[in-house]
From TrEMBL:
The lineage of its organism: Eukaryota, Metazoa, Ecdysozoa, Arthropoda, Hexapoda. Keywords: Cell membrane, Membrane, Olfaction, Receptor, Sensory transduction, Transducer, Transmembrane, Transmembrane helix. Belongs to the insect chemoreceptor superfamily. Heteromeric odorant receptor channel (TC 1.A.69) family. It comes from Ceracris kiangsu (Yellow-spined bamboo locust). GO terms for molecular function: odorant binding; olfactory receptor activity. This is Odorant receptor.
Length: 434
């Protein structure tokens, strides 16, 4: 609940993500529940069985490069989802604590800037909703492509069979395609109702994988978005520290805070100037405390996000490479599906690098905002404290992938370059074998 009328309710709004994760066992009820914990474990077990079924299903298909690469992409994605999902489930309480920490910062600091604070929080909330919608949309296109692709291919196969142009020995899978390659006891069924039941089960696994890999990413990025919003609010607070306020407002504050007896705009006592300086210095101390709390939030975010991002970077780099090889060798009918899958991998890399880079860039510019606070009109105490503050702000806040990569736009280009290098290497090896 919001503690001030000028704040949106809730202050940190990540409900869309938690509601999407709850049905698949990734976001439990507050206070914990053993039954829900068992359901969470069952979700992870299903993903493990999906990965194992993918690898086992490759038996007898190792000579088909497109099938092998497609299965490897699926298996890498499922394995990444298993690790990320397990980490996310174990971090549920810590993520909730970080969300409350960000909310406390929003309530406690910069109450003298109500309009700016509310505008930034509303913008962060809308942007978080846009993030989850974009994640769901990009991933949803891929999901729909994989689910409906075999149905379209089944229609073409039936036309081929009806034309009588096929060989006498007909592939038993012709007209009975599946969304993914999977091991099945006794072989994948091709007759009703076994075929339909197996198809629906694979669609369920795809939806499960889709939710468990996309929505946690949206949750992490949503938290990054709120941290960036607080850094923007700190920019505004720093710039306005020592700038003069309207005389009537300043007079009212001096009267209320320091108990001065005022006559018009001139205090009866000679402490008005000192009181004003004390107020300006108090604002500086508030900004310093706000900055310290943001640093703590970034450190918490780093500890929660670091391993997940490293795994995502490694997986996406390989999957982009393998999918690109598959696109070159696949039939034209499957190109939209693989293109959508490739776009999803690109987006998962980009979104982390972009919003991680936002935190870095906003923190990097803090020292310039502090320098713009009209410090020449302040006293020696203020200027000395400001120098110490600016010395700390010279070190931008970094989020990393387990210290291997910094989350930034440059890292995104570096990872794409790595994928392209692996792609050219595999392409050359494939051409030599041909």
């Amino acid at each position: 609940m919001a503690k001030h009328k000028d704040l949106p309710d809730p202050v940190v709004d990540l409900r869309w993500m938690s509601r999407a994760l709850a049905p698949v066992g990734m976001w439990g009820p507050s206070g914990g529940s053993r039954l829900y914990d068992a359901y969470s474990i069952w979700t992870i077990v299903q993903l493990v069985l999906t990965a194992a079924g993918q690898m086992a299903g490759l038996q007898g298909h190792w000579d088909d490069l497109t099938t092998v690469f497609t299965s490897l992409c699926f298996d890498l994605t499922v394995t990444c989802t298993i690790i990320k999902g397990t980490i996310f489930v174990l971090q549920r309480e810590s993520l909730d604590a970080l969300s409350r920490h960000i909310e406390r910062n929003a309530v406690e600091f910069c109450s003298h800037l109500p309009e700016e604070r509310r505008a930034l929080l509303v913008r962060a909330r809308n942007l978080s909703r846009l993030i989850v919608c974009s994640f769901q949309s990009v991933g949803g296109v891929t999901l729909v492509s994989f689910i409906t692709g075999p149905i379209v291919q089944n229609g073409r196969d039936r036309e081929l069979l009806a034309s009588g142009l096929s060989n006498v020995t007909v592939d038993r899978q012709l007209g009975h395609n599946y969304p993914m390659l999977m091991w099945w006891f006794g072989g994948l069924p091709v007759s009703s109702p076994g075929y339909e039941a197996a198809y629906l089960l694979m669609c369920y696994w795809l939806v499960l994988m889709y939710i468990c890999t996309n929505v946690p990413d949206a949750y992490y990025v949503g938290l990054l978005n709120y941290i960036s919003a607080q850094l923007r609010l700190l920019h505004i607070a720093l710039r306005s520290i020592a700038h003069p306020e309207p005389g009537d407002l300043l007079t009212e504050k001096l009267s209320h805070t320091y108990g001065l007896t005022l006559k018009g705009d001139v205090p009866a006592k000679g402490g008005a100037q000192e009181s004003s300086r004390d107020g300006v210095f108090a604002r500086l101390l508030e900004c310093i405390r706000f900055h310290q709390e943001i640093i703590k939030c970034v450190d918490e975010m780093e500890s929660l996000l670091s391993l997940t991002v490293l795994i995502q970077f490694f997986t996406s780099t390989l999957v982009i490479c393998l999918t690109a090889i598959t696109v070159i060798n696949t039939e034209a009918a499957y190109l939209p599906t693989y293109a959508a899958y490739l776009a999803t991998m690109f987006y998962q890399l980009f979104i982390y690098c972009w919003y991680g880079g936002e935190v870095y860039l906003e923190s990097e510019r803090l020292q310039f905002s502090a320098y713009s606070c009209n410090w020449p009109d302040t006293d020696a105490r203020f200027r000395k404290t400001l120098r110490i503050c600016m010395a700390r702000m010279q070190r931008p806040l970094n989020l990393t992938a387990y210290k291997f990569y910094k989350l930034s736009r440059e890292t995104f280009l570096l990872l794409l370059n790595g994928s392209y290098s692996y792609f050219t290497l595999l392409l050359q090896m494939n051409q030599k074998n041909d």
